Amino acid sequence: MKNFYITTPIYYVNDVPHIGHAYTSLACDVISRFKRLDGYDVFFLTGTDEHGQKVEKAAKNKDIKPIDFVNNVSSNFRNLSKTLNLSNNDFIRTTEQRHLESCQKLWKKLLESGNIYLDKYSGWYSVRDEAFFGENEIQNGLAPTGAKVEWVEEPSYFFKLSDWQDRLLAFYRENEGFILPKTRRNEVISFVEGGLKDLSISRTSFNWGVKVPNDENHIMYVWLDALTNYITAANYNSNNNDFSKLWPADIHMVGKDILRFHAVYWPAFLMAADLPLPKRIFAHGWWTNEGEKISKSVGNVIDPITIINDFGLDQIRYFLIREVPFGNDGDFSKNQLILRINSDLANNLGNLYQRVISFSFKFCNQMVPNHNNNIQDEDLKVIELFSKSINILKKQIDEQKLDECIKLIWKNITEANKYIDTQAPWSLKDKNPERMSVILYTLIEFLRQAGIMLQPFIPDTAEKILDSLSININKRTFENIDDRISPNIVINKPEVLFPRIDN
Ligand code: ME8
To answer: Which residues contact 422 (CB under 8 A, 6 or more apart)?
Structure first.
């Protein structure tokens, strides 16, 4: 079996989970589920980033020890994974022993290869971004992200980032698909072309982090620590061969805010440690709430658990993935959400399912009707919609065009709706029951395939569809698209898939 390794960023535990975190995780979940159905052995990793000054400050504000604080709050993100029905294989916490070992092993490798030296740092630091900024980047006393900065002067270990500029640029040139979308790739390239300074990678003024080997006054810079999670989870700390089975990762999915760390620092660390580079960094866009920037101070943070309770999990999964071309920014608007639920889910998919299943339920003895080998060209067109789309859908997922993938699936559902309207099986009940049976057979077979294809996106609903058609649990992968449902299989009682929402 081919391996496929995909990661979300590890989220800072000091924040409460919000819609932006849910979005990244859902995108990875869709891709993971899709690849599993396509025969891959998928390893999907998410977790929490628990060190650094920001987390230490948050613990201090609550007057508790950092370790007690992180133990308490990391479960918020673990619970979110459950609420979102994520299919992650691991949940990493940077305070785990395996991770401390892995960070120290990487540090030693960088030191031995001559990429680390001791000096003094003086410059601007933003705790909110956990990032250093050059004098030229400070605008009106703030970081480019708008965060407050403080002046830092302390002994520090440096990573010789400047040595890696040419090799990074050569790597980007040779690997066009390494950074996606393209516009983001161009931004990274011009940033690196602008010149790279050596990077401060340790701090001495606080101590909530991984200790630098053989120099306990220093703790590792939280981003070096955090990025290393991706190899920790692939067993970098162990001395057996497990590591090469998983690493390099196929995709690091991130928001555009943290692209530089993933597309510049991380590959430089890995090259310097003589480790393979991940195959792709995909930086998706930024969500606003009803047109406004989401922020705690504005008080407009969208709690994923509340909206899932209000609207339903699959409804939210569908909306987030369908609404925005993946890679672009998006706006979360309740009106738009309700519109999508009512038109795409309730009217288009829900009605098709309801009409087909209830009709067969009533007029075909609760069974898949017989087609008596009388399938016509117009029926075949519907039966073959997904066989014809499957390779396009696979390509779209491999290019992370998640919204296009969903749109193509819905195009097929719209086709099936047109077919039921023009064929009007209800009008044939008395005058041509054989033809009615063929039409219903066609539609049920279409629903079986749609059920398979919908699993990555709306897994609960897909399961309801497949269960109601009594599809064996082992017959729900892409290999089964070309199976044909057998007549006389029992259909289970239909339920409303998506209740309409009154605005
Ligand atoms: O940056 N729209 O963690 P973090 C879209 N610990 N995505 C959003 C979003 C929004 N409005 N807000 C957050 C960190 N995100 C580091 C990562 S990785 C080695 C270390 C998502 O908790 C998006 O994926 O601040 C973004 O990159 C991430 O949450 C930042 O999460």
So the answer is: none
Listed residue (43, 53, 55) closest to 11, CA to CA: 55
User: In this predicted model, what pLDDT tens digit does every residue of 234-248 receive, in sequence order?
Assistant: 999 998 778 989 999
Encoded tokens for 28: 């990875």
Give the position of tokens 């294809």: 453
**Can you tell me the distance from the alpha carbon of 23 to that of 9, in angstroms, rounded to the nearest whole number?**
11
Residue 486 CA to residue 483 CA, distance in Å, equals: 9
Q: Which residues pair with 49 in a beta bridge?
A: 12
Q: Is 80 exceeded by the pLDDT of residue 503?
A: no
- What global pTM score does this model have? 0.97
Radius of gyration (C-alpha) of the chain in whole angstroms: 26
Domains detected in the chain: 2-285 (3.40.50.620), 334-480 (1.10.730.10)
Q: Which residues have CB under 6 Å of ligand 1?
A: 9-12, 15, 20-21, 23-24, 49, 226-227, 229, 254-255, 257-258, 286-287, 294
Q: How far apart are the first and last CA of the chain?
A: 48
